[in-house]
Amino acid sequence: MADVTSRPAARPSRGGRVPVIGLTGFLGAGKTSLLNHLLRRPGARLGVVVNDFGTLNVDAALVAGQIDDAEAISGGCVCCLPDAGGLDDALQRLSRPRLRLDAILVEASGIAEPIGLARLIGLSPVKGIRPGGIVEVIDAVEHDRTVDLWPEPPARYAAATLVVINKVDLLPPAERDQVIAHIQDRVRQRHPHVQIITARHSRIDPALVFDTAADEDPVDELPLARLIRDQYEDRHDHQHARAASTELVRPVCPDALIDLLEDPPPGAYRIKGRIVVRGSRTAQGYAVNVVGTQIHVTPLPAPPPVGELVAIGMNLDQETTQHRLDTVANAPAERPHTAGLRRLRRYRTLSA
Ligand SMILES: Nc1nc2c(ncn2[C@@H]2O[C@H](COP(=O)(O)OP(=O)(O)OP(=O)(O)O)[C@@H](O)[C@H]2O)c(=O)[nH]1
């Protein structure tokens, strides 16, 4: 077990579809802070879709210096605009293979419902993308006065894959733990297994939400982005996500794999991998991605010579996670496994 950033096996599985990550949260919770923080990740090639550049105050120099393309959707909340304000068109443009983006971040306006945004991303007809999760930012100070006003906990938490309880620096030290526990409890009433973390200024470990193709900026290519990052002396002011991984030197048993994907080990927020399964005639490679409870399976053009499975989360249970990954690596898979293949193909169909 190690920090994600220091572990070779946690490096991205390249190719496949670009994850689209929705950033949601009530007005002022810290979405733009989160977007700018993620944009500062060295080596990341990110596409951004925002409702309106003018009002959202994205760090324009970061956008200009670091990403190839940005798309603004004006005229209101992306969920409420006809045709989703052209979200699909924006995703289509940003998912062009030549852009080689690591992820596309969609920052919805403060009034957008995460459920609506999750649906727009999940049901998008754009072929080059996959859902990358919904990150819901909560203002720890204003929570009970803004989003959580009724006896029932807010429905929006049901759509989140990751909840960031932000602005914890503004909580009085004597009340801090109690307030955080209260918010956690309200979120879990609605969504028992969602991953919840705390943050200041929305500084979370970017490795928790996307992979990057490189750990550092290419030399001389992105001077603006690097300059801006250098202004943030405390940019490592967050806990690091942790990863566990296993190499797959032979085909996997699809049943064992799907068991893992459907019931991830405690603390695993993402599971990703490239795997090979034995079909009736040939071996087939697949890219698998799990974010929260979303399982995405897409065929690879060719089976990888060596596969891998990586689990990432803030509070991974080291022993259990490694054991679960190794169980998949070691499950016998000499013969085609009809029932398991059917389960796998079902996810492939749902992901198409
Ligand atoms: N003290 C403190 N201030 C924060 C924190 N996170 C964000 N802020 C400030 O809170 C304000 C709102 O943050 P934004 O990131 O713009 O929030 P937002 O969700 O994008 O806001 P809208 O786009 O208006 O919905 C800004 O002034 C931030 O600097 C935090 O953790 N602590």
UniProtKB/TrEMBL annotation:
Keywords: Chaperone, Hydrolase, Nucleotide-binding. Signal peptide: none annotated. The keyword Nucleotide-binding applies. Residues 241-329 form the CobW C-terminal domain. The keyword Chaperone applies. It comes from the Bacteria. It catalyses: GTP + H2O = GDP + phosphate + H(+). Pfam families: cobW, CobW_C. PANTHER family: COBW DOMAIN-CONTAINING PROTEIN, COBW-RELATED. Belongs to the SIMIBI class G3E GTPase family. ZNG1 subfamily. This is Cobalamin synthesis protein. It comes from Actinoplanes couchii.
